[in-house]
Amino acid sequence: VSHAPTEGATSRLAIDLDDVLAARDRIAGAVHRTPVLTSRLLDERTGRELFFKCENLQRAGSFKIRGATSKIRSLSPVERERGVVAFSSGNHAQAVALAAGEAGVDAVIVMPVDAPRAKRTATAAYGARVVGYDRMTDDREEIARRIVEEEGRVLVPPYDDPLVMAGQGTAALELLEDVPELDAVVVPVGGGGLLAGTATALLGFEGVRAYGAEPAAADDTARSLELGRRITIDPPDTVADGARVQTPGFLTFPVVRERAEAVVRVSEASLVRAVELLMSRMKIVVEPTGALAAAAALEGEIPADAGRIGIVLSGGNVDPATLARLIGEEPRG
Amino acid sequence: VSHAPTEGATSRLAIDLDDVLAARDRIAGAVHRTPVLTSRLLDERTGRELFFKCENLQRAGSFKIRGATSKIRSLSPVERERGVVAFSSGNHAQAVALAAGEAGVDAVIVMPVDAPRAKRTATAAYGARVVGYDRMTDDREEIARRIVEEEGRVLVPPYDDPLVMAGQGTAALELLEDVPELDAVVVPVGGGGLLAGTATALLGFEGVRAYGAEPAAADDTARSLELGRRITIDPPDTVADGARVQTPGFLTFPVVRERAEAVVRVSEASLVRAVELLMSRMKIVVEPTGALAAAAALEGEIPADAGRIGIVLSGGNVDPATLARLIGEEPRG
User: Which of A6, A54, B148, B254 has the most C-beta neighbours closer than 10 Å?
Assistant: First the structure.
């Protein structure tokens, strides 16, 4: 560890490097050490050396199991007894369900009744109880408050939690252990948990910069960074469903602002192209949100002085039919 | 190495364990050590522990780079100067092109003029010269003889060559190093090079049995084993294009007969189901031929006393559009 923290800076922020290192120890054995893949063709095409950290091959299909396990393994005996609750129709739902099930902790996952059946089924298959709510008529905040207060369950937030953020940073630790000499690591940005954890993990590796990649159509974090304060955008329309977030996290944003180099924007077309390239050239299934960082690197959005780039492919939970439709619709050229 | 070879047996066969070990040293640095993936869901579904050796993530998209590199790195200086030739429209073509290009050896790849454009382009992109022939009017044997005799090029056969067979066996060596306690290793069978190499590699690991998996619609090897001699079948109709072989190899068959436990049959429907499961559950793209061994294990074709099974996913070279069509046609239930 070669980083000397800026004096006074760490006390303001939700996590520091030690938290990520502690999370690594805490989640050991519960998550896969995912492989790092390379592609000569993509290196030639970009003129960089790209190293793809395959969190799409992670348990429950995304990096989210890291944060969920970090949080659940930190519960006190009393909290474990009461169980946990999470609000998600995406990768966080499956991650919390799996992490809780393995820890012997009861889990309730609250998702909209119109969430894809496959996601409900997958979440239930990990042993969680799925509670539906109607997006039009039900008050999600009210449901949350009732479950947390009446049942005494611990909320596992998708990103705005120090234990969750620290857990997400462990992917970058593994990547840098496997590929020591990187100039940059690029990760997708939704609520900012992965970027906050990654940028914090990189404090342990001098000279390695953290970049986020966000859909241009859902650029709440990029715009917030430009303005220096958290802004809220209209509900965004992007194929990257995991990045349809309207404002950066309360806890994640200060960490990102302090420690990340920049957040770059990715077009919808380049995102679909990246998904197709990862499939046809690298033989892996990456969901659109999971391909944000790859798209940024492939489109030359990362500054040219970053010759060796680590890319976190953050998830692979997209069903083959959706994938086929996406690629069929890809604009050519 | 705990195996005591049957007395006198090795001298009759094209390769022995030492050849595979030598091939491993020879190809070091030119091939990826591919990851081994697992899936809790697929383990639960089969009641076994399955370990997937991902040669679909190998360079040039399949295990074929192992055999091609083993052969090309064994050439004498004079042979290197003359160059190589291969006949293939499939994974062997790309593998020979890449291996030759990296060794600075000139390569000619002969493929039918009606081969998919993507395969011609990929092969040419690795620096090989692609020569087309008309399946209806040209005599492939004549083309081969002319190129080998007139140009003095060395033929790199797809399977019937000791150096190629030995190279293919190196995937099993890596798998057993990563997962020592296996009961069986299952691999796809076309001409038998991968199975011959694998069964030979397993001589070094006592009690680990080698199985082949073949399309039921192209069961030339299974039938030949049952009859005790090589038979030739009619041109088979199977989605597993890499297994459309009409007779087992002259050199591979005796090795398979002596050292493999059995070759099991896989239906077309189960093959497509396996491709879909590998995509939706494990987030990887595997071509139909590459999924033969997985389909055999998922359908319970491997004897029940094999609790821990290594499965070689042999290749991933299928374009997304074809994949989408395949999965769309999958018979349900």
Answer: A54
